[in-house]
Specification:
363 residues; alpha/beta; Rossmann fold; 13 helices; 20% strand; metal ion binding; metal-binding; Ribosome-binding ATPase YchF; GTP binding; ATP hydrolysis activity
Length: 363
């Protein structure tokens, strides 16, 4: 199950710097107050120390992390959603979640595209651009269903009603994620992949001295978003990007501690993305490999098996399940079996975060 996160924001807020914190594919940053013309792509390993703990009890040939695809999308320009500057919106459509980077630092050598640093204004600017594009999509579909509605098509009439609610909501500068329609009526816009329905994590890109507690800018962001169902993270992008280039894990840890941090911002970002998308991790453990797998929270055992391979879901018989804490406490699969901590589960079992699965199947 692939997870794709898009990094968005205005030009020169530090999007590419944040991308470089996360990625081994280092992209070129710029001091010019315009966005680059193309998206930067990278697939990164999801940090999970549990994999290396598992290896202590089950020696293995390789460890395989689950991955996240990160897209550094060119900086948005203030154009009302039209024109060359916002071709990137097609990339936004393909993302599962958005990481909205906000400039929360002063730097006279790096001019802000709006002439001053104001992250709350920047949130409103980006939201407006996305709302305009969603409104265009809604209006196009309204034109299509209107004719059918006029000749008495009941489903088209309902679609027209729902789309009109979306239209009015977006025209009131509200995101489609907060539109007041019943859950079942959202089917009428599913094919539009509306940009403002996507979950958003906000990253306040601060200077090094504000890496731990944030600053006045980030405090304003938190206050502005206090009633939103989102997460606001503080990341000192420039220093963390420099730290991420160090070869030694010990050196990286030492530099993070010097700044007052216990872990890289990328770890917090990935955890936030998992949380906002209701994702969890399960493991397969053996002498050939120990591997992490991403699943949707609440998946049954057959559905989790399907994450590994469709054949495993199709031919699912049962799952042998060990809890992560039981495995590392008792020290082996055999010990879990002897202590009654290896469970045989059927098709209705709900897989939990950290479960170690062995799937029995027949196709």
């Amino acid at each position: 199950m692939g997870l794709k996160c898009g990094i968005i924001g205005l030009a020169n807020v530090g999007k590419t710097t944040i991308f470089n914190c996360m990625s081994s594919t280092k992209a070129q940053t710029s001091v010019v107050a315009t966005g680059s013309g193309k998206s930067n792509l990278s697939t990164i390993n999801v940090p999970d120390d549990r994999l290396y703990v598992l290896e202590k009890f089950q020696p293995t040939e390789k460890i395989v992390h689950t991955t996240v695809e990160i897209v550094d999308i060119p900086g948005l320009s203030k154009t009302g959603g039209k024109g060359e500057g916002n071709k990137f919106l097609a990339d936004v459509r393909n993302c599962d979640a958005l990481i909205h980077v906000l400039r929360c630092f002063d730097d006279p050598s790096l001019p802000h595209i709006e002439g001053s640093v104001d992250p709350v204004r920047d949130i409103e600017t980006v939201n407006f651009e996305l709302q305009v594009r969603d409104l265009e999509s809604i209006e196009k579909k309204l034109q299509k269903v209107e004719k059918a509605a006029k000749v008495g098509d009941k489903d088209a009439k309902k679609a027209f009603e729902v789309l009109s609610i979306y239209k009015n909501h977006l025209e009131s500068f509200q995101n489609a994620s907060t539109v007041p329609v019943d859950e079942q009526d959202k089917k009428y816009v599913e094919d539009l992949f509306l940009l403002t329905t996507k979950p958003v994590i906000y990253v306040c890109n601060v200077d090094e001295s504000s890496a731990v507690d944030g600053n006045e800018y980030s405090n304003k962001v938190k206050e502005y978003l206090k009633n939103e169902d989102t997460e606001v993270l503080i990341i000192a992008g420039k220093i963390e990007a420099e730290i991420s280039e160090l070869d030694s894990e010990e050196d990286r840890k030492a530099f993070l501690e010097d700044v007052g941090l216990t872990e890289p911002g990328v770890n917090k970002l990935i955890r936030a993305a998992y949380s906002i998308l209701n994702l969890e991790t399960f493991f397969t453990v053996g002498p050939k490999e120990i591997r992490a797998w991403t699943m949707k929270k609440g998946m049954t055992a057959p559905q989790a098996a399907g994450v590994i391979h469709s054949d495993l879901e199709r031919g699912f018989i049962r799952a042998e399940v060990m809890k992560y804490n039981d495995f590392i406490t008792l020290g082996s699969e055999q010990a879990c079996r002897e202590k009654g901590k290896l469970y045989v589960e059927g098709k209705n079992y709900i897989v939990e975060d950290g479960d170690i699965l062995h799937i029995r199947f027949n196709v």
